[in-house]
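USER: Note each token:
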Amino acid sequence: MQTQATAIESIDNNGKLGKPLAPWTYKNPELFELEYEAMFLMRWQFVGHVSDVPGIGDYLTCDIGRDNVIVLRGKDKKLRAFMNVCRHRASRILEGTGTCRGVVRCPYHGWTYQFDGSLMAIPQEENFPGLDRSEYGLHKVQLDVFHGMIFVRIKGEGPGVAEQFAHTAQFFEKYGVADYVKCAEPTTQIWDANWKVVWDNYLENYHIPIGHPGLNRLVKESGEWEDLTSGISYGVFLLKDKPSNVEIERRYQEMFRHAERRVPEELKGKWVQFGFSPNLGIDLYPEMVDFFQLIPLSPDQTLIRAWYYGHRDPTPEEVELRRLNILVNDPVNEEDRELCLRVQRGLNTHGYRPGPLSKQETAIFNFHELLRSRVPVINLRRAPRRGSVATTNETLRENRPSV
């Protein structure tokens, strides 16, 4: 795999306020198609943890927009990823998670594949004269494992996941994420908002005091944060000492110390949050890690997924702490949903022009800059005429000064 020549570096924000995206970019169906390719097919997507596919033949499937990927452990114990589509007539092959017994078989016509993706057998093969089975294996997808977390990239090239995290990767080692297992059932929701509205919201903490009163009672920003040129950002929150007046929150505060034995001294009393643009949030707690992932469905609908993983041998206190964590954060998720729906409705207001970004919203600005670099038409303040967004984008790309 080729890698970028440019090193992953920290972005020097210099208190830059910057300009947010124009309102048209949050609701244009032609732009949505360009974004899907540039930001979702061509960037790494989280699909699960190695503990989800421990044995030979074990597999998981994951939707990435209208595409679906299989991750399968082969007879050589290696993980591989493929597009979940039969090479014969485009049937989806596998669903959910499970174990393939010896082969992968399409449920439509019975085309059968080896665990390495090669086409093994075709029913009534005599009716396919001259067919070369070696040309009809499953379409392979790039796969990368980072501290036990499985990522896939459907097309394009560039740096691996570890390289994109750069020096911030040390956090995952300190929490021991590579050895985690699933500790709660994943959840899904559909929000009636553009995916960028949702991701903008995830990237900033300016709204916490007003939008998340419970979260505001529990934590405060530490001042430790960083944005990287790869599109990754992180921030550290401190758990407040003052007991909350809400029982579940106060109970979480009281029990938090039971999980702190898992982390080094410098991480005690802290939550660490990562944003992996364009669509993956990672929250590291001493008791577990959760993943917040958004997948675009349409210009005004977004699929929201959550995964939860933790240590294999939790104490009873840690099990309870995980339960409390989810009870604390579920209302935060619902508050974010309502905030994003308010923004999506507001973007349709006649004559609306966006205000400035604050110094607490630099991660949004850097995300917008990443978008502008990959989809140049996003730089325009007004939408191109209908039917011309893609051609305008290509013209802008061709005329962009070379670096």
The domain at 43-155 is CATH 2.102.10.10 (Rieske Iron-sulfur Protein).
